[in-house]
Design a protein that fits this description.
By secondary structure, this protein is α+β, with helices and mostly antiparallel strands. The protein has a single domain, classed as Cytidine Deaminase, domain 2 (3-Layer(aba) Sandwich). The protein contains 5 helices and 6 strands. It has a 6-stranded mixed β-sheet with strand order 1-6-5-4-2-3, sandwiched between helices. Helix 4 (about 90-100) packs parallel to helix 5. The N and C termini lie far apart (about 45 Å).
């Protein structure tokens, strides 16, 4: 009797399931340097910051710049640590610094650069995506997100929802 009820329940749950999909939207540019899609001061600073990354374990330097609506700029580089996971990713360093200094000023754009040239620009890790999501949630409006590397490819997102489509948020009262 129990097995029959369990089988019926499993059958009903399969009948109620609906297949859903979500489309990810972004722009891909293959020559961001020649088109000057990134302000030159930002591009130069991102490349310079790669030298400040401390990545002896991954050998994967990352730099990030956060620009606030008031024009303030905050930078970050990844900082690894032998006592993993004590390190911090570049984008979280920059976002946390910006929100510590100007907690009520919205972010207008975030730039993230990796030190490689061969592959597509890397997307932030899951922890960074969640931090980016929450910073956007706090300000109640999306910001521009640019992923690039030392090559010529640039990925542009309007907001972080396309990087974290099923984001985690605590219920609000």
């Amino acid at each position: 009797m129990f097995c029959q009820k369990l089988t019926n329940l499993m059958y009903l749950s399969k009948q109620k399931a609906m297949k859903q999909s979500k489309q990810i939207t972004y722009e891909r540019d293959t020559n961001w340097r020649t088109l000057e899609l990134i302000p030159q001061t930002i591009a130069t600073r991102l490349e310079e910051l790669l030298q400040n990354a401390y990545a002896p374990y991954s050998n994967y330097p990352v730099s990030s710049i956060v620009v606030l609506d008031n024009g303030e700029v905050f930078v970050g580089t990844n900082q690894e640590n032998a006592a993993f996971p004590s390190g911090m990713c570049a984008e979280r360093v920059a976002v946390f610094a910006a929100q510590s200094a100007w907690p009520t000023t919205p972010i207008s754009s975030i730039y993230i650069m990796t030190g490689e040239t061969e592959r597509e620009p890397a997307a932030p890790c899951g922890a960074c995506r969640q931090v980016l999501h929450e910073s956007e949630y706090r300000q109640k409006e999306p910001y521009d997100l640019y992923l690039l590397n030392r090559g010529d490819v640039l990925l542009r997102f309007k907001g972080v929802q396309d990087l974290l489509p099923l984001s985690f948020s605590l219920p609000t009262s």
